[in-house]
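SEVERITY: medium
COMPONENT: batch folding queue
REPORTER: lab tech (J.R.)

DESCRIPTION
The queue accepted two submissions in a row. Attaching both inputs and their returned structure tokens so the on-call engineer can compare them side by side.

ATTACHMENT 1
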Amino acid sequence: MTPLVVVVKGFPRVSETFIAQELAALERRGVRLTIVSLRRPYDALTHPVHGEIRAGVLYLPEYLRDAPARVVRGHWRAWRRAPGRYAASLGRFLRDVLRDPTPNRGRRFGQAGVLAAELPSGARLLHAHFLHTPASVTRYAAAMVGLPYSLSAHAKDVWTSRPWELREKLRGARFSVTCTAETRDHLRRLAPEAVVELVYHGLDRRLFAPPGGAGSSRDGTDPRDPVRLLAVGRYHPKKGLDVVLEALARVSGHVALTVVGYGAEGARLRALAERLRVAGRVTWTGALDQPGVLACYRASDLFVLAPRVAPDGDRDGLPNVVVEALSQGLPVVATRVAALHEAVEDGVNGRLVPPEDPAALAAARGGR
């Protein structure tokens, strides 16, 4: 029997340690669960926490054309089991597709039929991480099988989704949780009658125990032992790693930067470092597992990140790497964007500067 079914976009994913940690913690507390993934994993790297999770993973067909027989069979079984419920879910889908006539909308309903037909026995609740695609599949499937659903909201899914769709998903959910006060307040304004609570992402204290020893005495005067800056994040425009490189070019003294991450923007960022003549001061590690990132926190003097709001509204909420850095006693210099102020108290455990301002970021490093 699997009382809890958790729907995610992909599993495992190297950038979503917060989901893996939550699943592992639920299992340690005796919760039996099944993970439903809308796509198969594409990351070569996993974290130790992924190895702790014992739940089975049900992979839905990412593209309906890849498994047409499974999709048709799933919808047929879902209809045969509960024609009235299936019709209600279909009606919900048709209302949605009139407002959003995209192929992706049809794919979500197609996956929902497979999930409804292959749902583990004994399921009592469907829970979706992210309010966009996973929540759509979950909402349609829950209607087909007559089960309640709940939601976890994060960042991109909140700020790039249509308000009407967010409102209807929130209203239909038994409850929703989100990881910053900013997104909680935004969602409560959208759907005042919905139950939306704040639950910050936690850290596994077994891994992120406070470090011992005194802090660094590096001051940038010794070329053999430069001040060590650290940035961790996907190579994505909203992370603002280009601003970090531009700030590095403005910093005097002996300073080195380590960048942990991966993504499509990697070549562009390396080319920018060359143009700014800081390439010799930057180390690109690629993706690392959590113990590897932890070692970087403990070897560094300052964590720096310059998130921004993308033109389509996409933004970070409260990057988990910021919380991880603070847990290791590492001061943080970041831009005052989204919910960064909920963890970084300017002048206390770090500095917050305006976005898109490399000069201010460089000056904040000097005032650490």
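ATTACHMENT 2
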Amino acid sequence: MDLAQKRCKPCEGGVRPLTREQSLELLKALDPAWSLSDDGLSIARSFAFPVYDQTMAFANAVAQIAATEDHHPVLTIEYGRCRVSYTTHAIDGLSDNDFICAAKIDRIATGATP
């Protein structure tokens, strides 16, 4: 399944979040560095860079994905590192959108077009 080719669908609530089992299955389509939180409500991955400007360039690329997909992560930026965390706030858990965006981020992390 190529999640990076999919587009996010608007989520205004009223749907159930993914189960832990569904999330673990979708996680298999992502880079193994992504992890599911203990409570099963979010996924996260840290990316390391040798210099700050590369960290910021990556964060800006993630911001572009967020704007295009209208689905926004939590970004924690430090010198040489950017941590990306996804959850779908409208449903208090994970949705397909979280995994779609994570897959797009995996592509930019490897230098591919999202």
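NOTES FROM REPORTER
The first strand starts at residue 35 and ends at 36.
No errors were logged for either attachment.
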